[in-house]
Amino acid sequence: MKLSFSAQDETFREEVATWMGENLTGEFAQMRYRGGPGDEHVFVEERKAWERKLHGGGWTCIGWPEAYGGRGATIEQQVIFNEEYARAGGPGRMGHIGETLTGPTLIAYGTDEQRERYLPGILRGEDFWCQGYSEPSAGSDLANVKTRAIKDKDSGQWKISGQKVWTSLAHESEYCFVIARTDSESVGNKGLGFFLVTLDQPGVDIRPIQQMTGTSEFNEVFFDEAVCADSDLVGAPGDGWKVAMGLLGFERGVSTLGQQMLFQNELDEIVRLAKVNGASQDPALRQRIADAHIGLRIMRYNSMRMLSGGGDDGSLQKEAMIYKLYWSSWHRNLGKLAMDVMGPESEVLDAAPYELSRLQAMYLFTRADTIYGGTNQIQRNIIAERALGMPREPRG
């Protein structure tokens, strides 16, 4: 891992900063620093337009190989892009799932036909994706999925039935990658398939879930014999677990850089507020702000370390297994810090229509961080069993 950047990298940094300064203006200026956790409901159409603007400048999917429309950017350049994006106040990315999860997974595991069909829409910022993993009885325990995929003998198509939950931005997406059981007799991580499913079709019902923030970033998605072409199965029937684990590697890979971009913006807002309202004069709060800054730096360096040893198939070093536990606990504590810096104002809404401030919404949203994507308890089991080789927890 390198902790410094070459002269060529710094030239790239200047290119990013210049473009952002020239383009995050006019109609896009209102979106600066918006669209992060708990704030995803704002400026949705404008942020979709921003994705197309990024594409026009050559700034979508920069880490993809050039053969698929990317820049083939190095890890160092991807770090730089996310740093400068954050510094300029770039809004939360609507194309995040497609660019950092769907795209790399198809590049690693998909067919030429699948790549030709789906990658251009992601690259252009025109097609948006969501993730169909969790279910009511299979949240942290992904291998317990109940959603079924049955192949129709006459048409050769797959018919998918089941329920997915906590599906972020499904109501704003065109496609969903879905883990479903292709073998009705299988259990655990055997007999699964990884499907690319069109959401705008009969048999798909998307129901928003209202959160504590009053918004509905999450959704339930019900599939009632929704159709998926055989050509939209990634890998063979039964390969679903392998593909799903590869995707989770990408989720803990370059995807983390965009997440840290949003964290930095939130921390900057907390520091600004502390200076304005005098909270920065409180020694205890100053120490907690310093601890948050240090924690974010550690997060960055650990990400660069784990990315420096990753594979093109999403595989990462064992150190990557600490990432979700680390960031979720850090972010939850950042939410608490935000409320303490706000002081009594944290419990007050200014005026009608009584909308939450960004920091209030962030605090409420962070209460879920240590639950979704695998609870902290599950993450500790993963670290113990898969990284450290300790005995598996007894299953009752």
TrEMBL record:
Keywords: FAD, Flavoprotein, Oxidoreductase. Residues 238-387 form the Acyl-CoA dehydrogenase/oxidase C-terminal domain. SUPFAM superfamilies: Acyl-CoA dehydrogenase C-terminal domain-like, Acyl-CoA dehydrogenase NM domain-like. One of its GO terms (cellular component) is plasma membrane. Residues 8-126 form the Acyl-CoA dehydrogenase/oxidase N-terminal domain. Residues 130-224 form the Acyl-CoA oxidase/dehydrogenase middle domain. Its cofactor is FAD. Gene3D superfamilies: Acyl-CoA dehydrogenase/oxidase, N-terminal domain (1.10.540.10), Butyryl-CoA Dehydrogenase, subunit A, domain 2 (2.40.110.10), Butyryl-CoA Dehydrogenase, subunit A, domain 3 (1.20.140.10). GO terms for molecular function: flavin adenine dinucleotide binding; oxidoreductase activity, acting on the CH-CH group of donors. Pfam families: Acyl-CoA_dh_1 (PF00441), Acyl-CoA_dh_M (PF02770), Acyl-CoA_dh_N (PF02771). Belongs to the acyl-CoA dehydrogenase family. This is Acyl-CoA dehydrogenase FadE.
